[in-house]
Write the structure tokens for this entry.
Amino acid sequence: MPILTAALIFIWQADSGSGPVAAPGSSALVEMIQNSGGVAMAVLLLLLIASIYSWTVIFGKMSTFGKATKESRRFIRAFRKATRLQEIATLATDFKASPLAQVFEDVYETYKRQTGGSGPPRNLVPLERSAQTAASEAVTNLERRLTWLATIAATSPFVGLFGTVIGVVDAFHGLGTAGAATLRAVAPGISEALITTAAGLFVAVPAVVAYNQFTARIRVFAAAIDDFCRELLNSLEEIPVRAPAPARNPVAEVPREAERGIYK
């Protein structure tokens, strides 16, 4: 993305006659871009847009995954230290970025509808279904916009290849027009081909690397969510049944109170 952006900035500066003079090392690249045709410029512009969007997704996902990892670690520690579900439900609101907290909130809502918020669950099947649904939604949220990275990674080289083909066509056209095999006749077309090919690779490579890394991290999140679902369901299943309070019998209590000496 920086190379494409710099290239277009140099073109604009050269066309407008303003701005700093290009450095000797970059003057050749700027000159080649200036000599490119309309199709090559359209390809470069399309690749620039794709590169900007892919880097936006990459930085956004890095931030999202970082927050999710940090808050999930804090939430699981709080979950294992808590002694009451109500305490965990109160803490879950502080960990909105954690997929584990999202799963807990959905399962806890199902648990409250079933039991009123206390006592063991009457049926674990609805809780298991709620946990599966919440886990699927959490993973889906993490995967959002990753398909665009895969699409950019797969199509950018072909977009650059299209510019390459057009550049080769221009090179042969210049060769036929000149009527002689000279470097001046084929240089513009060859430069278009090389620039668009390089631009396609510069856009595709970061998108491929980021997509593979994010996919691996999502698999880790999915495994952690599944483990937490089992741990949460086990905790709900182990809630003890409250024994009913024994009925009070005033007649029977009189002798016991008398034995204590209250009625003496």
